[in-house]
Structures are given as C-alpha cells and as structure tokens.
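Human: We require from you a standard protein entry with sequence in single-letter code and fold as tokens, and nothing else.

Assistant:
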Amino acid sequence: MFQSFDVTSTPQFGKQRVEALRTRFEALGIDGFLVPRADEYQGEYVPASAERLAWLTGFTGSAGQVLVTATQAVVFVDGRYVTQLAEQVDGAVFSGGDLVGEPPHLWLSAHAVKGFRLGIDPWLHTSAEVRRLEKALAGLDGSLVFVSENPLDAIWDNRPAEPLGAVAIQTDSYAGVLAKDKIARICSELTDKGHAAVLVTDPSSIAWIFNIRGSDVPHTPHPLARAILYADGSADLFLDKRKTGIEVEAYLGQLCVQRPPSELTERLAALAGQGGRILVDPDLAPFALCELIRAHGGTIVEAHDPAKIPRAVKNTVELNGSAAAHLQDGVAMVEFLYWLEQNHPGNVTEIGATKALEAARRQVGERMQNPLRDISFDTISGAGEHAAIMHYRVTTASDRPIRSGEMFLIDSGGQYVNGTTDITRTVAIGAVPEEQKRFFTLVLKGMIAISTARFPKGSRGCDLDPLARIALWKAGADFAHGTGHGVGSFLSVHEGPQRISRLSTQELLPGMILSNEPGYYRPGAFGIRIENLVYVREAEAVEGGDLPMLSFETLTFVPIDKYLVTTEMLTREELHWLDAYHQRTRDELMPLIHDPKIRDWLELATEPFSR
C-alpha cells in the first residue's frame, strides 16, 4: 500500500528529547530554539529525514512549530490540529499555541524575557519569517542566533537518510507546454526587468518548469531540487544524479546543466560576486541562501517565484487531464461506496475501508490503463468521533469498526500522471440522529454556494469564503479550516497561492483548481465534510449585466449521500443544483462502469429528489 498504519507518534520520548535539546543552549549562546515543520525546501510534506517536529514532540500534523525555552515548550498549530495535538503530545512537557492568532513571533513579543536570544536553523526559515522574528526580538532587546548546525540533528539517533527518489519525465501530452518554452519565458522576463538570474527553491516549481516528476516526498511527486535560471536563457539544475537515469539526464541535458546539490552555494556565491540582481521569493527561499547572496555582494530582488502563478493557472491540456483523472477516480469511489454499503455495519474497520478504497483506485487504474501512481495524501478515514478530528490519521492503535448509527468520513485522493484528485464524502451507516442530518445539510448548503458562485474578475479567496459559512453561521456554528486549497497537476495536493479562506488575498484566475470543502466538527461526537474539486472559468454573460464574471466548473463527480439531506432546508435553487449534479454524475460515470450491480447502485444513489 501507499499508506502505512504504523503508530509514528512518539510522545513518550518528548521529555528526554526536549531536555537533551536544552543541554545544548549554553554552548550555542541561546535561550530558546524554534523548530518548524518545514524542511530545507520549505515544503508542507517532508521526507522522513526532515520530520524534526514529529521526532521532538510526537505531533505528526502537516503544519506547526515548537518553541523550546529553558522552562517551556510550546507547540503552535492551527485549528485543524487542536484535537490531534492534545492526543499526540505529552501534556506535562508541551503546551499548545495558536499558529494563526499568536504565532511564535507574536508569542515572543508577549511572553519572552528582555534580551531573549532565539536560535534557529537558517535553512528551515524563510527571509519573511526571519524578519518577523527579528522585529519581535528587537522590541525585547533580544537577538536572533543563526546556528551553523541544527542541534536536533546532533541528538537524533538513527535519523533517516535523505531520499534519493527516482525522477521521471512529465511528457508534453500531460504538461501541455514544453519545458524549453517555460524556461525561455522566465528568462525573457528576467532580461526585461534587468535581473541577472532567478533562484528557484520550490520543488514543485522545479518539477513544473522542467517537466519532471520525482518521488522524494510521500505522496507529492516532485524531486527535492533547486535551480538558477539566467537572463541569457541558460539554467543550472541542482539535482542529484543518483535520482536520474540515462534517459532523464539526456532530456535534462537539452534544457540545463545538471549539477550536484552541493554546488549550489558555490554557484550562487559566484553569481552574487558579479554584483548581479538576483530574484528571490522571500516566502519560499531559505534565509541561509538569501544571506549567502548578500554576503558575496549580490543584490536580492524580492518577488514571487515566477513559476507560481503559471503553475497554478492550468492550461487546457492540464485541465482536460484533470477532468479525465477525476472521472476515473469517481468510478473508483463509486465502487468503494457500493462495497461499503454491501458490508454489514461493524464488519469494516477504518483501516479496512482505507485499504478497500486504495484497492479500488488500483483496479480501476489497471482497467482504464492509467495506473494509480500514489495516493495524494494519507487517507482520512474516520468513523463517529474520529471524524471530528479534521486530519485524523488512522493507525493500528486507533483503528475501530464503522458502526451502525454513526457517520463515516473519508477524505482521500489519487495521484495520476494526468491529474491529482482530492475528494471527501461523509456517509451514514444505518440510521443517524436528525441533528447530524441537519448539520450535514448546512454543510451541503455551503458547498453548493461555492459551486454556484458567480463573482467579478479580481475577486479573491477571502471574498468567497463567507459563502461557504453563512448557513452554519446562522445556526451558530463554523469550521476551523479554510474552505478550499489549490491543487496541482500531478503535483502537490496543496498548491498555492490560490485558496478560499479568510486570509487569502490571491486573485482567483481562470484555470486555477481549488477544493470546495466546508465542514462541521463536534469533538468527541461526529464530523462532516463534503469536498469536490472545481476550477475557475469565465462565466456566461448575464443579460443586463455590465461586469465580466467568473464562476466554478466542477471536476469531481461522486454521489452525495441523499439520506443525510434534509430537503426542507434547501432552497429550490439548491435542490435543483443537487439533482443536476447527480444527473451529471450518472451521465459521466455510468458508461465507465460495467458491473450491473454497481450500475444499479449508482442509478439509485443519483435519483432526483424532485421530478
């Protein structure tokens, strides 16, 4: 399987590991040390060798930081992980912090003593983060101390080796644009703006620019690599040759000079020594590289990664590929939901369901000659109270049967060469209380509101986010995560800069793929999330209208559990959307399903409420 169910959280070691870290403070000249979830590439998903936060604390979430001082150890997480944090760390050693409301720099301003010296690994923090920390510490007459070697690595026995995942070519039939044309466009922009070069540090941008994919990071097919693109049209790619075979090396040889990663600092220092203007994204590049440029006389021009927006705005080939991948994935989901319904309540466990869904994706991939390359993240498979843990990861220790009288939430996705999928369905197992149906319908109203939204060009994710929440707000409820995140094209399932959330100021542009996933979670009781992927497109003109408008096109087609819908709570327009969605789901998937029993199930699951 692509997913392990082993217990990886180790809270029992928290005390001794924190104490071991503290013993190094005096030699380093620091009063505290900040450990982020990010790795040297600033990734959300990191290889085992970079799981420093999890190793130290036991917390295995995909976002967080821990600040260790002489007397405290505060783990900062966002609303998705509050419940998980409480379950995974030793409460006698660690306390919880608010990553959004009071992140480390604000916490330091409010709680650190005068003259506080904070140690950080400059490879694990961006320039933007460093500025925030320096400003906070300056208000305390404190200082930031950059350590030359990470003290955690020194005390981490049996630390896993850095990955050497194989690299493959993402052909033009899936990428849609030749790598040489992407490089030429970026280099031309450098020339136009008078820049000598751009330092690209985001592995997903490397994968997109050079039309390659990797396997260094679980479930995210990009290679851990960096690149320098020059105004003269040339490029250096710092990618370990142990990851590339003859075919890939020959392909890359036509685009760039492939160099060992160890040569990056030398090449960057030489470039900086020429006094050139080097474009760097301060939100993505490690501070260590920015400091190296400055130290050797280079001029840093802070700007967005030039691949970020082009990568987010999918071309026609990528959008068509994603649509095809979602239909294939939809067939697998239907076969799984049929299988789940055929099993007697209590006979299937959360792990059993996860295995069955991955098996369905594999089998459908073989039939349709488009193999499942990986899952796009560890499947969230939670029954009853476990569904209330937003990013619940089932293990052999937490696994339990899916019982009658409760809801089951499964959030999953597949990586296919033509697209990345992400879908959540919440289904009833037997009869469930009316209150749970009520909240399911409130969540559904929010999901429909995003699906049917029309919005002016220039609208941002924060402008649309309330649409998904208003029904819940009126009921005195909410959910503590964003409404939607960007999704890559056979890349990361969490792709920026596009998202739908309170904090997103990125303009939504045609071609951007996003998730649409409102939810509701009652700790210790139940959880609900309904998720489709959508993409931004030009909206049809409205008679009498005077503004160019955008809308969303749905990519995901899988039945929504009709039993959980309280139709009296839906407006006529909402009910019409649901019926139309189910009709489209039937029309799209039925020709791809050949088992008569599953076809009958799909027919019943997509019957309209109104005739």
Summary: The CA atoms of residues 49 and 160 lie 5 Å apart. The longest strand covers residues 406-412. The first helix runs from residue 14 to 22.
